[in-house]
Design a protein that fits this description.
With about 160 residues, the chain is mainly alpha-helical. It is about 50% helix and about 0% strand. The protein contains 7 helices and no strands. Helix 4 packs parallel to helix 6. The longest helix is centred in the middle third of the chain and has 19 residues. The protein is elongated.
Amino acid sequence: SAIGGPSVAMKDQADSVRRSLYFFHSNNERNLLLTTFDEALVKECYRREQSIVPQQALALSNSKLVLESCVQIADRISASSDTEEIQDKEEAFVRGAFLWLLGIRANDEAVQRSREAMARWRGIADTGLGQGHPQRERVLLIWALLNHNDFVTLR
């Protein structure tokens, strides 16, 4: 999507890949996903409150936007990490995922635990998130990191 342009109408927001900055905001019509994450209210000059509620975790776990984004993010990090001239491409992917999504350099323990989880996921039947993806375990790791506390919380 290009920068600028018209607002995304309420009826089109669920399928939009544009940033919420481009969503049409109204006091009468509000985007359900944005309300879960304390969207800026029109009648309060776009000021935001801060809350932590269970619905936020459920939205990150189950929203169509997050589930579809996991595949795209995994593919993008894979393309970046798989071209590096190193032996261990899986470790490069894990380290890249932590850096891209959480903004931190994964320590050796985090890398090892992530690799163990990915190995277990390879042994589970191919249903649900990432179904049919050649590296489904990478998609599942991205999903886990998008639900990680450090992805959601600014410190």
